[in-house]
């Protein structure tokens, strides 16, 4: 296997370095690391002052996030794993505008939106919410360009059977598959192993990334970057080998894909480079230098491009040599290649996300050689033969477009009227169009930064393919926030042509005349017809409008854009359906809640999906009462119409529920509230009856339809003129019903008929007043007035007035048609003398065609108008007074009825209140009697309890005395019968052994057996709890274990014979063990003991020892300070869930099966909660502050995994912990000295060494 120069094996001289994704919290609490966070914290405090950031909290957030990703998404995490881990280099970039800034700001927005105190990734109870936060973080990082996915090509030489699996791994990790090696953007090429197979020789190697004082940051081969560790500098290689960048794509073995899938993150491709790739890099010379500090850290597309540079003068090597290579081989190769001085090392100027400007020291001469072949950038406008012959144009001075850096800038074409747009700034036009994003800078969802980022992302999405139309749905998938606000931004950009301008149906045609790039562009500027990265200015181009379009004012960009009422106030149903807004949940931004959502009435722009509403994810200060359910109307369902069954259900719902449209819509089932209301208003329920009641314009003729003309001709005065729908009718929409009725009557008759009727009405008003008639006659200029009572004009006189000179044949004016017409039209009854003197009177109209002018043609005298007005007002006043009197009487009558009704209601209420008072009085008496009875019963019960307690105490004292006597008698019998405990290989003469009884917490006697070394002096004390599944075992069965511990450790061992289940279930055993520990620390001198005091146990005893250690920490005082350590041998630490891999692996173990363990735990618990910490210490939420611990496990043991998990949690919590797994051993076999004669196969030396370190203070 080949390794980097000066690569040292990770296992050397018996030393083993842990390789795991476990995070060391101390690394993120060190002063050196916190100092690097100062610029970032200052930036956060300036931008988000309400966030209250500090470097300690930020370091803790990074450590918790890394540990959470390892626990939830790492190699040992349980499925499902919804997405891969974030690259660790994103969290190592502490630049003020790097990805860590975005992560901290996003966590603050989550805290503010959900009303949390802080985002605590270490809380296992919020795993689902933390995964949601991590998913939104991935989208934000991808949108900002920090998280980029690799473009992987699987070589055709790979086995065909492995290709589907490899493709699935790449897709699960978020990578993109390339069809061919030459596809654009390929970053990794995966090849099969060579003839020798996998180059991994089984040895573990590491290389140094950087040094910081006495520590070195190392990377272990064939592990992801999240497994990098800080080790002492003396155990690490001398040479610093930071990550490198290469020319072209990485050529890696297939193991790179499989290992990445196993760890659920992209591994470092340097560890998997092929031999051919290394040889090619050696031939080409040194690799590219690392990116300067401060540049954005690449994502998975280049996960090995690190920001950290090597020490001064230490150039990274691209060549890997074997361990047996001659010394200095790598240094010779690097020196032969020489340094690369094209780009100046150091921090560059960041222009945009993913874009950094650097100084060019020694440019490539081939790029400046005018004779060298160039690349045709004319987009097909220049021929191949002309590209090389054209001379290079001199660079124009101060063009102002290419910039000082000389970097190529890609131009983005927008319409001329949007030339104000700048990618890096916000124009005043945008502020005026969307003021809500700029009025409140402290808002999380609507602020200038949010607007600019959202706007630029939408523009970038469109620029990926400007020939394809971008829809809001596609853009919405990449955005997070209020859907309505996002849609307003999208519509604003589309209205100004910043997106979809070149797409089909947009503002620019595909074959526009201006597609050819203009001449004279400055050097360094090229046109990207298919869009490109952000940063381009506007090419001012606008399609020419045709004269027809300008005159019609239609189309996009028309000159006469007239706004009609339809355009301003409404759309057609089809348009409204096509432009329906989408709503997304504020608590779960990836959920579309357009169909059914819950809208907040207290805080605007807050909508929740049904799942979030059911889970109670309300904003701070809001409850379920502050939300209303909104069902969106389905345009498709509305267009389908109403079936007979739905109409029947609608009418039935109206009858059942009245105005409760929510219940009516639920009763219909297939329609929303809005659809039900709209359809009900459109039902023709009373149309036919109203048509029958409407009067006709003429007897025997139907009422004309609205909008239809009823005029037969100019001479038709019998039918009214309704006019067309466009003709205005005065007072048609008046609120006064009288005026509305009058306008309708006017619309039903002709203008001539209306004028004649008005004239005749005025004349009739004058007939009853002779004085008024004379005044009207003088005002009309018709000669002397006829005396009152003279009667109508004779027929002959009427005929002469008409100019005919002859009377009617019958001599009767009443029967004369012409006279009747004249009388009705001219009102001759009011002016009898006007006919005789009309011809010669001055001021009268002249004769025309031999006929006198009609009276109707003369103007109405002012006196007649005044008379008519006075009469009308008088009649109206009289009528109004009569109506007012009638209304007054009706109001008095109704008021009297209301008073009588209220009087009756008050009397009824008074009667009910009287009855209620009687009921309450009776209930009060009953409650007082019951209270007295309860008081007497409680006194009697207290007396009986006192008597029972006294009797119980007396009996208990007698029982303790009896038990002590019985124990002494049994000991004498055992001695007389020669029965001895199981001493194993330890002889009883080597230790002093004595038995005694102590009181437990409940007063019962608790047997102890104390083992003391024979030598003089005081010894450390070990309180020993035997195993047996809480059901079996005792002092005699486990004497050999306690004796071996006492002999090996030279300590006093206090063996506890706690009471067993099922006769004494939980918590009896815990109380006995706690009482024994307290007795031991209080009687150290009596048992020849001294501090330190250690608790130890095997199997179930290990469980009790761990519980006693946690109780001592909780109790505090001398109980906590005296306890120095804990020893757990094959302990049972989680009785709640028996689902670890070791349980499944050894569920049929003949010594200790899973069924046996379940039976033991059932006997011990007997229905009590197994998840409480005093039963399952592994489930304790806080393990900090516990004494040092030694955990010993057996390889073939169902309890193995939970014990090792407990050790890992102790170490993570800062507790000094030692863990050893005995290979080939089964449960408690490392204690069986009668089976294993080799001391290395037993655990007693480990216990003795651990106790020695405790006594010496090294732990």
From TrEMBL:
<feature type="region of interest" description="Disordered">
    <location>
        <begin position="697"/>
        <end position="728"/>
    </location>
</feature>
<feature type="compositionally biased region" description="Gly residues">
    <location>
        <begin position="824"/>
        <end position="838"/>
    </location>
</feature>
<dbReference type="InterPro" id="IPR013094">
    <property type="entry name" value="AB_hydrolase_3"/>
</dbReference>
<dbReference type="Pfam" id="PF16495">
    <property type="entry name" value="SWIRM-assoc_1"/>
</dbReference>
<protein>
    <recommendedName>
        <fullName>SWIRM domain-containing protein</fullName>
    </recommendedName>
</protein>
<dbReference type="InterPro" id="IPR001005">
    <property type="entry name" value="SANT/Myb"/>
</dbReference>
<dbReference type="InterPro" id="IPR017884">
    <property type="entry name" value="SANT_dom"/>
</dbReference>
<dbReference type="InterPro" id="IPR049898">
    <property type="entry name" value="MARR_BRCT_CHROMO"/>
</dbReference>
<keyword id="KW-0378">Hydrolase</keyword>
<dbReference type="InterPro" id="IPR007526">
    <property type="entry name" value="SWIRM"/>
</dbReference>
<feature type="region of interest" description="Disordered">
    <location>
        <begin position="371"/>
        <end position="397"/>
    </location>
</feature>
<feature type="compositionally biased region" description="Low complexity">
    <location>
        <begin position="839"/>
        <end position="855"/>
    </location>
</feature>
<dbReference type="InterPro" id="IPR036420">
    <property type="entry name" value="BRCT_dom_sf"/>
</dbReference>
<dbReference type="InterPro" id="IPR032450">
    <property type="entry name" value="SMARCC_N"/>
</dbReference>
<keyword id="KW-0804">Transcription</keyword>
<feature type="compositionally biased region" description="Low complexity">
    <location>
        <begin position="785"/>
        <end position="823"/>
    </location>
</feature>
<dbReference type="Pfam" id="PF07859">
    <property type="entry name" value="Abhydrolase_3"/>
</dbReference>
<dbReference type="InterPro" id="IPR017930">
    <property type="entry name" value="Myb_dom"/>
</dbReference>
<keyword id="KW-0805">Transcription regulation</keyword>
<keyword id="KW-0539">Nucleus</keyword>
<keyword id="KW-0175">Coiled coil</keyword>
<feature type="domain" description="Chromo">
    <location>
        <begin position="13"/>
        <end position="286"/>
    </location>
</feature>
<feature type="region of interest" description="Disordered">
    <location>
        <begin position="777"/>
        <end position="855"/>
    </location>
</feature>
<dbReference type="InterPro" id="IPR029058">
    <property type="entry name" value="AB_hydrolase_fold"/>
</dbReference>
<dbReference type="InterPro" id="IPR009057">
    <property type="entry name" value="Homeodomain-like_sf"/>
</dbReference>
<feature type="coiled-coil region">
    <location>
        <begin position="913"/>
        <end position="956"/>
    </location>
</feature>
<dbReference type="GO" id="GO:0016787">
    <property type="term" value="F:hydrolase activity"/>
</dbReference>
<dbReference type="GO" id="GO:0005634">
    <property type="term" value="C:nucleus"/>
</dbReference>
<dbReference type="InterPro" id="IPR032451">
    <property type="entry name" value="SMARCC_C"/>
</dbReference>
<feature type="domain" description="HTH myb-type">
    <location>
        <begin position="634"/>
        <end position="676"/>
    </location>
</feature>
<dbReference type="InterPro" id="IPR036388">
    <property type="entry name" value="WH-like_DNA-bd_sf"/>
</dbReference>
<dbReference type="Pfam" id="PF16496">
    <property type="entry name" value="SWIRM-assoc_2"/>
</dbReference>
<feature type="region of interest" description="Disordered">
    <location>
        <begin position="287"/>
        <end position="306"/>
    </location>
</feature>
<dbReference type="Pfam" id="PF00249">
    <property type="entry name" value="Myb_DNA-binding"/>
</dbReference>
<dbReference type="Pfam" id="PF04433">
    <property type="entry name" value="SWIRM"/>
</dbReference>
<dbReference type="InterPro" id="IPR050300">
    <property type="entry name" value="GDXG_lipolytic_enzyme"/>
</dbReference>
<feature type="domain" description="SANT">
    <location>
        <begin position="637"/>
        <end position="688"/>
    </location>
</feature>
<feature type="compositionally biased region" description="Pro residues">
    <location>
        <begin position="287"/>
        <end position="301"/>
    </location>
</feature>
<feature type="domain" description="Myb-like">
    <location>
        <begin position="634"/>
        <end position="684"/>
    </location>
</feature>
<feature type="domain" description="SWIRM">
    <location>
        <begin position="412"/>
        <end position="510"/>
    </location>
</feature>
């Amino acid at each position: 296997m080949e390794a980097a120069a000066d690569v040292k094996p990770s296992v050397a001289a018996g030393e083993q370095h842990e390789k795991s994704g476990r995070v060391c919290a101390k690394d993120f609490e060190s002063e050196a690391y916190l100092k690097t966070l100062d610029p970032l914290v200052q930036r956060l405090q300036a931008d988000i002052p309400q966030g209250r950031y500090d470097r300690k909290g930020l370091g803790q957030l990074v450590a918790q996030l890394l540990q959470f990703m390892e626990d939830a998404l790492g190699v040992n995490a349980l499925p499902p794993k919804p997405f891969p881990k974030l690259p660790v280099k994103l969290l190592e970039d502490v630049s003020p505008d790097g990805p860590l800034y975005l992560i901290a700001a996003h966590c603050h927005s989550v805290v503010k939106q959900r009303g949390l105190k802080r985002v605590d990734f270490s809380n296992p109870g919020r795993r689902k919410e933390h995964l949601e936060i991590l998913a939104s973080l991935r989208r934000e990082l991808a949108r900002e360009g920090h998280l980029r996915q690799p473009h992987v090509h699987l070589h055709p030489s790979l086995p065909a059977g492995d290709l589907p699996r490899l493709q699935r791994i790449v897709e699960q990790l978020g990578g993109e598959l390339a069809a061919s090696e030459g596809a654009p953007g390929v970053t990794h090429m995966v090849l099969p192993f060579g003839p020798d197979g996998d180059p991994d020789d089984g040895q573990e190697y590491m290389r140094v990334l950087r040094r910081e004082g006495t520590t070195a940051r190392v990377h272990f081969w064939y592990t992801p970057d999240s497994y990098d560790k800080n080790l002492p500098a003396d155990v690490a290689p001398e040479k610093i080998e930071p990550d490198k960048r290469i020319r072209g794509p990485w050529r890696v073995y297939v193991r790179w894909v499989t290992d990445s899938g196993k760890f659920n993150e992209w591994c470092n491709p340097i560890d998997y480079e092929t031999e051919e790739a290394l040889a090619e890099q050696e031939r080409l010379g040194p690799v590219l230098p690392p990116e300067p500090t401060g540049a954005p850290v690449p994502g998975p597309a280049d996960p090995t491009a690190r920001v950290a540079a090597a020490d001064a003068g230490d150039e990274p090597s691209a060549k890997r040599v074997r361990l047996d290579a001659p010394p200095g081989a790598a240094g010779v190769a690097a020196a032969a290649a020489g340094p690369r001085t094209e780009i100046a090392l150091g921090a560059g100027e960041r222009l945009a996300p993913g874009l950094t400007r650097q100084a060019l020291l020694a440019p490539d001469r081939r790029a400046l050689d005018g004779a060298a072949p160039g690349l045709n950038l004319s987009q097909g406008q220049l021929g191949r033969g002309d590209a090389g012959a054209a001379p290079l144009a001199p660079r124009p001075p101060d063009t102002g477009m290419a910039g000082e850096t000389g970097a190529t800038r890609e131009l983005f074409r927008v319409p001329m009227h949007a030339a104000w747009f700048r990618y890096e700034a916000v124009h005043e036009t945008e502020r005026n169009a969307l003021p809500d994003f700029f009025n409140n800078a402290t808002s999380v969802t609507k602020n200038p930064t949010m607007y600019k980022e959202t706007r630029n992302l939408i523009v970038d999405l469109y620029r990926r393919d400007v020939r394809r139309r971008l829809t809001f749905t596609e853009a919405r998938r990449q955005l997070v926030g209020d859907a309505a606000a996002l849609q307003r931004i999208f519509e604003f950009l589309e209205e100004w042509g910043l997106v979809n301008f070149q797409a089909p149906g947009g503002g620019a045609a595909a074959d526009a005349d201006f597609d050819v790039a203009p001449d004279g562009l400055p050097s360094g500027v090229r046109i990207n017809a298919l869009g490109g990265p952000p940063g381009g200015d506007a090419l001012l181009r606008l399609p020419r409008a045709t004269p027809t379009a300008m005159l019609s004012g239609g189309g996009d960009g028309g000159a006469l854009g007239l706004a009609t009422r339809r355009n301003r106030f409404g759309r057609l149903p089809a348009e409204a359906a096509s432009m329906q807004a989408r709503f997304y949940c504020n608590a779960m931004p990836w959920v579309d809640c357009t169909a059914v959502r819950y809208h907040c009435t207290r805080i605007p722009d807050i909508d929740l999906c049904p799942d979030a509403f059911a889970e109670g994810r309300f904003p701070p200060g809001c409850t379920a009462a502050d939300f209303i359910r909104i069902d969106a109307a389905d345009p498709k369902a509305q267009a389908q119409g109403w079936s007979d069954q739905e109409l029947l259900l609608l009418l039935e719902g109206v009858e059942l529920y009245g105005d409760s449209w929510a219940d009516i819509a639920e009763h219909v089932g297939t329609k929303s509230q809005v659809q039900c209301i709209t359809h009900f208003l459109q039902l023709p329920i009373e149309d036919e009856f109203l048509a029958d009641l409407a009067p006709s314009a003429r007897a025997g003729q139907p009422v004309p339809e609205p909008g239809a003309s009823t005029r037969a001709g100019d001479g038709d005065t019998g039918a009214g003129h309704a006019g067309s729908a466009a003709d205005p009718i005065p007072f048609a929409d008046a609120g006064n019903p009288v005026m509305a009725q009058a306008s309708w009557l006017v619309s039903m008759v002709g203008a001539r008929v209306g004028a004649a009727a008005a004239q005749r009405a005025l004349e009739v008003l004058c007939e009853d007043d002779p004085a008024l008639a004379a005044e009207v006659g003088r005002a009309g200029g018709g000669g002397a007035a006829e005396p009152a009572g003279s009667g109508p004009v004779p027929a002959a006189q009427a005929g002469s007035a008409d100019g005919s000179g002859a009377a009617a044949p019958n001599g009767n004016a009443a029967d004369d048609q012409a006279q009747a017409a004249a009388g009705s039209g001219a009102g001759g009854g009011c002016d009898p003398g006007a006919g005789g003197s009309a011809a010669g009177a001055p001021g009268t109209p002249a004769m025309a065609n031999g006929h006198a002018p009609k009276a109707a043609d003369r103007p109405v005298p002012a006196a007649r108008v005044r008379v008519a007005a006075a009469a009308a007002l008088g009649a109206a006043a009289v009528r109004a007074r009569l109506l007012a009197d009638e209304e007054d009487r009706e109001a008095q009558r109704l008021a009297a009825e209301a008073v009588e009704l209220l009087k009756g209601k008050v009397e009824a209420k008074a009667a009910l209140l009287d009855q209620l008072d009687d009921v309450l009085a009776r209930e009060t008496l009953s409650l007082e009697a019951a209270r007295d009875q309860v008081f007497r019963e409680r006194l009697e019960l207290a007396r009986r309890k006192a008597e029972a307690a006294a009797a119980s105490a007396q009996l208990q004292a007698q029982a303790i005395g009896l038990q002590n006597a019985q124990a002494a008698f049994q000991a004498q019998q055992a001695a007389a019968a020669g029965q001895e405990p199981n001493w194993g290989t330890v002889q009883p003469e080597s230790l002093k052994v004595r038995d005694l009884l102590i009181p437990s917490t409940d007063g019962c006697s608790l047997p102890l057996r104390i083992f003391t070394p024979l030598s003089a002096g005081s010894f450390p004390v070990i309180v020993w709890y035997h195993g047996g599944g809480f059901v079996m075992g005792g002092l005699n069965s486990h004497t050999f274990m306690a004796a071996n511990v006492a002999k090996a450790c030279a300590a006093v061992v206090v063996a506890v014979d706690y009471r067993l289940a099922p006769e004494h279930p939980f918590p009896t055993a815990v109380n006995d063990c706690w009482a024994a520990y307290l007795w031991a620390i209080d009687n150290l001198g009596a048992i020849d003991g001294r501090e330190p005091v250690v608790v130890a146990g095997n199997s179930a005893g290990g469980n009790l020892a761990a519980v006693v250690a946690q109780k001592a920490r909780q109790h505090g005082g001398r109980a906590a300070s005296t306890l120095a350590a804990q020893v757990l041998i094959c302990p049972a630490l989680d009785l709640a869930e028996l689902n670890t891999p070791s349980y499944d692996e050894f569920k049929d173990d003949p010594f200790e099966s899973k069924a046996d363990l379940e039976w033991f735990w059932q006997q011990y618990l007997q229905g009590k909660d197994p998840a409480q910490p005093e039963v399952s210490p592994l489930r304790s939420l806080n393990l900090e502050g516990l004494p040092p611990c030694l955990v010993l496990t057996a390889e073939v043991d169902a309890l193995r995994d939970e014990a090792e998990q407990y050790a890992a949690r102790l170490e993570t919590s800062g507790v000094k912990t030692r863990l050893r797994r005995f290979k080939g051993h089964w449960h408690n076999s490392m204690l069986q000295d009668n089976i294993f004669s080799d001391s290395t196969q037993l655990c007693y030396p480990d216990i003795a060494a651990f106790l020695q370190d405790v006594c010496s203070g090294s732990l």
